[in-house]
Structure formats: structure tokens, C-alpha cells
Amino acid sequence: MALIELTSRGLYCTPGDFYIDPWRGVHRAVITHAHADHARYGSEKYLCAASGELVLRQRLGEIQLDTLRYGENMTFNGVRVSLHPAGHILGAAQVRVEHNGEVWVASGDYKLQQDATCQQFEPVRCHTFITESTFSMPIYRWREPSEIFADINAWWAANREAGKNSVVFGYSLGKSQRILGGVEASIGPIVAHSAVEMLNRCYRDSGVALPKTALSSDWKKSTGALVLAPPATEGSTWLKQFEPYSTAVASGWMHVRGARRQRAVDRGCGLSDHVDWPDVLNAIHATGATRVLATHGFTDVLTRTLRERGLSADVLATDYGSDDDETTTPTTAAATGAVTAEPTV
């Protein structure tokens, strides 16, 4: 019997009698992070990393929640569980499960790049590693974040000189805070949509330093602002108050020219909170795992490559990938690079 099995409710640890990121209500859920495809309401008890408590409560409301600091452990029916930094968003964790000398790690979503708004990914040695594969194709190779933020700053400053506001569409949890933590706040005022600002407050209350932001309702209408907005606001009446403006989308999909054209925005910002192709291979190697299970993304490409390298690799068909804007794949041509990749922003 496998230590962790795929069931109709999610990933289930039979000897420990708990689920990891279940997509239906269960008696005990261990949560890797607060994006809604991994953290869903309806379970009796939850466990998450301590640094992610506020964002998880913001997303799920009144829940019975236990927390662990990274590296601490808890035992369920003789199964030892510990949480380790995943580097995806604030509080994101890899779940290490150990029983009778066998160790599995469920990564949730993760990235290896530096991010000032969350703790850096730490590889965890294991026998079996469950990995995401959102961008697991050779075309996806991220630029350095410092270069991307420098480009965003230059674009923002140029728009301000031209009498325009700069609207960046990015997911309200994780992506918006990473942008906020990386830009040069002295360029101009920063305005946040209410959905973004609620989570900004959770980050600040969790000890993450972020520049000052204003809600649109409190903002003195002018030009030269950086506006952080969820993707759903694109084309909305809410956006009209910022005219004239230039638009950008922050997503790993913007690494490919066709995805940018599909979104019909002025700029594409290839800033991702997921591992790219080299980093997913590096992360797997660092775990020392001899067996890899791939979920949500280009699973076939990743498992085929791993098998060629002598590892046991299979696909887990989970329900993940419906909430994070980067796990909602654009059209096949755009996503797979049938159109040439290009520098973005």
C-alpha cells in the first residue's frame, strides 16, 4: 500500500488518516497553501504552516486550525508530519510524511527563485516526491526577478511621464504582494483593488514589509499611479476610473508572445510563482527521490524526461490548477510555445 494515495476526495495518507489539500470536505486536511484549488472550505480540522495562518483564515473564514512552524512535526497514528518552505506564496509548505522509515514529500506549488514576501524553498530528502508541473516544458526558463522588476519600474516611470496610470493584472494572493514588494515605491502612488488590499493586510500583519497602498475609494484621482488589480477586473467599469492607463499582465504565461496577444494587453510580465523547467529538474534532483509523481501541468513532458533519466515517474490526476491564474493554461499554441518565446515587459 502506498503511503499517500489518490482518492475521490484528494491525496490520502492511509496510515495517518489525513488528507493533503483535499478538494472535498474531510475530517482532517493538511494544507500546503491558501490558493483555493489547494485550500477548500468544508473540512472538520485543518493544519497549515504558521506563517500562512492569516491568509488561510482570510480565504476560509471560521475554521478549526492547527499550525506548525517550518521544521516542527506532529504525529498522526504513528505517521510523522512536518512542513517545510515551498517558496510559492506566504505560508506555502511542502508536506513531509514519514512512516516506518519511508519518506514522501508533497510539494504543493513551489518556486526556487528569490521572493522577499515568503520564505525560500528548501529541498527535503525523500523516497517519493509529489511535484507540480505547471511550466514543465523546456521553453519555460525565467529571467532573474531583479531584471523583471527593473523593467516594471521603467515602464511605470515612462507611463507617469506620459500622463498615464500603470495597471498590472496579477493574482490577488501572492502575485500582487510579490510585485508590491519588488517595485520601487518612490516612483509614484500605488493603488490596490480591495481584493488585493485585504491580502496585503494579512501579509503585513504576518510580518512582511510592503510599501503603502491606497484603495481606489481613498485615492485622489491623478495619473502616474501603479494599480494592482485581479485579472477579473480587466475590461470592467471599475477600471475606467484609472483612464488613461497602460496595462500589463504578471504571469509565467507571458513568457510566450502568443499568450500576451491572447490577453490583448500592452505588456507581458513573465513573473511566475512556479518553478520553470530547469528548476523543477533541479528541485527533484535535490530531494534524492527515486520515484516522482507529477500533478497539474505538463505532466507527460516531465514524467517522460524523468524516466529517460532513470527515475520512476508517473502522473497523479488531481483537481489542482483551477484557482491560481498561472495554473489556468491559455490555449495550447500559446502555452506550448508554438509561437516564439520572447523577453517580456
Topology:
Elements: E1 5-7, E2 10-13, E3 18-20, E4 28-30, E5 45-49, H1 53-60, E6 65-68, E7 73-76, E8 79-85, E9 93-99, E10 102-106, E11 128-133, H2 145-161, E12 165-169, H3 175-182, E13 190-192, H4 194-205, E14 214-215, E15 226-229, E16 245-250, H5 257-263, E17 267-269, H6 277-287, E18 291-297, H7 299-308, E19 312-315, H8 332-335
Parallel strand pairs: 3-4, 4-5, 5-6, 10-11, 11-18, 12-15, 12-16, 13-14, 13-15, 16-17, 18-19
Antiparallel strand pairs: 1-2, 2-3, 7-8, 8-9, 9-10
**Distance between termini?**
49 Å
Oligomer: single chain
**CATH architecture grouping of the largest domain:** 4-Layer Sandwich
What is the mean pLDDT?
91
Q: What's the count of strands?
A: 19
Shape: globular
